[in-house]
UniProtKB/TrEMBL annotation:
Keywords assigned: ATP-binding, Carbohydrate metabolism, Kinase, Nucleotide-binding, Transferase
Family in the record: Belongs to the four-carbon acid sugar kinase family.
Enzyme class at the top of the EC tree: transferase
Organism, scientific name: Cognatishimia activa
Listed name of the protein: 3-oxo-tetronate kinase
Cited InterPro entries: 4-carb_acid_sugar_kinase_N (IPR010737), 4-carb_acid_sugar_kinase_N_sf (IPR037051), NBD_C (IPR031475), NBD_C_sf (IPR042213), OtnK (IPR050007)
One Pfam family recorded for the sequence: SBD_N
Length: 422
């Protein structure tokens, strides 16, 4: 089928988050890991390409995103969605702005919107300021993120240094007036030369208004949630025929492994809750990994019964992470942990693991790449923004869930496992 909406996500958990929310409407969503090396074949109306570009150097992120754009164009897409984190994670150099401007230039677009809001997960935007629950972004646990600490909550201030063209705001008072009022505001800003418009949203109703007003833009940007209304809007506009979601749930109960490289407050609570169930667990220590390599972890794993779904985690308190980063360097510490968790994933698969629960975006990228999967089928949603996915890992059918650091409730790991047993 010709692709209607071509989506590019800057990390793997973000890609499954977006694909899961698009699939809520019952449409078939196809998720590719990285830019496919083959020309488009067997495409779906909604195609998502997962990149691992959030913390990549700007030039690399731009080049990979443009390659993804070319593939999606070849699949027939004329509308595009650039998905970044609902907490607007970017390094000080920033990839969100430069990637958006490169996409706009390639598409001949003179304006786009920025809406990372995800109300079901507590992310809302008011007067251009991003809130996590009741706290401004910069006062939320995101201020301590190991790779992209967020120390400002104002999206215009975060975006301005990242782009060449002017940044503006369409605030909640406009959004509350509906899609026509928002379109008028966007037109007025365009007349003033404003290319980058942050749009407030505090509820799913606001997201419906924004999607309706922006559905004809060649490029929309945001978190996953603002894309959620698009399939229904496109169906209503007669852009594609109804088709059923075809992901069958394979029978993959039994063996499992949980791998956590996320240090977010929610993941740390999930790790503790899972350990409290009495499940076997191993904590990785980045300093020890730097000294002795991953063999001790692999030996521990080899001795485990995978029907008990063991947990391997590096998740640690911010002070501990900072201490390790000061000794090893931020990127080096992250890579050591990611590399070890990826090796554990491969070893677990070869020991017979068929369900993989992975926490953390960067971690998910490393694990998914190691498993050698190139396409994910979207299955049941475990928590808002976290679906099970099914894929083939070098001849083995497996289920994989990639959990964003901040998503899910405390019992997420056990809930994810039981979901495939229902
Ligand atoms: N104990 C540790 N010491 C140093 N770095 C660590 C430690 N544990 C994890 N890391 C690194 O921190 C980074 C965590 O990023 P990751 O994207 O996996 O999680 P997250 O940011 O919580 O998730 P998301 O991007 O979905 O919000 C990874 O690069 C990981 O390797
Ligand atoms: O938007 C989010 O918060 C997630 O999809 C994500 O990008 C996690 O890395």
């Amino acid at each position: 089928m010709t692709t209607i909406l071509g989506c590019i996500a800057d990390d793997f958990t973000g890609a499954t988050d977006l694909a899961g929310l698009l699939a809520r409407s019952g449409v078939k969503v196809s998720l590719r890991i990285g830019v496919p090396s083959e020309p488009p074949k067997d495409t779906a109306a909604f195609e998502v390409i997962a990149l691992k570009s959030r913390t990549a150097p700007v030039g690399e992120a731009v080049a990979e995103t443009l390659a993804a754009l070319d593939w999606l164009k070849a699949a027939g897409a004329q509308r595009f969605f650039w998905k970044y984190c609902s907490t607007f994670d970017s390094t000080p150099e920033g990839n969100i702005g430069p990637v958006s401007e490169a996409l706009m230039e390639a598409l001949g677009a003179d304006q786009t919107i920025y809406c990372p809001a995800f109300p079901e997960n507590g992310r809302s935007i008011f007067m251009g300021n991003l809130f996590v629950g009741e706290h401004p972004l910069s006062e939320s646990p995101m201020k301590n993120h190991p790779l992209t600490p967020m120390t400002d909550s104002n999206l215009m201030r975060l975006l301005e240094p990242q782009v060449k063209q002017p940044v503006g705001l369409a605030n909640r008072l406009t959004v509350a007036k509906g899609a026509i009022a928002l379109k008028d505001r966007l037109e007025a800003l365009k007349a003033e030369g404003v290319a980058h418009v942050v749009v407030d949203a505090v509820s799913n109703d606001d997201l419906g208004v924004i999607a309706e007003a922006c559905q004809d833009m060649s490029l929309m940007t945001g978190g996953s949630a603002v894309a959620m209304p698009l399939p229904q809007l496109y169906k209503d506009a007669g852009l594609f025929p109804s088709e059923a979601q075809t992901a069958d749930k394979p029978s993959l109960a039994g063996t499992a492994i949980i791998l956590s490289g996320s240090c977010s407050a929610m993941t740390r609570a999930q790790v503790q809750a899972y350990k409290d169930t009495g499940a076997p667990s191993l904590q990785l220590d980045a300093l020890e990994l730097a000294e002795n390599g991953p063999q001790a972890a692999l030996d521990w794993l080899a001795a485990q019964d995978l029907t008990e779904a063991p947990l391997v985690y590096a998740s640690a308190e911010p002070e501990k992470v900072k201490e390790v980063q000061a000794k090893l360097g931020v990127a080096e510490a992250g890579e050591l942990v990611e590399d070890t968790l990826a090796k554990c994933a491969l070893a677990a698969r070869d020991q017979g693991a068929r369900r993989f629960v992975v926490a953390g975006g960067e971690t998910s990228g490393a694990v998914t790449k190691a498993l050698g999967t190139d396409r994910l089928i979207i299955g049941a949603e475990i928590a808002p923004g976290v679906p099970w996915t099914y894929c083939n890992s070098e001849g083995h059918d497996i289920a994989l869930t990639l959990k964003s650091g901040n998503f899910g409730n405390e019992t997420f790991f056990a809930t994810a496992l039981s979901k495939l047993e229902e």
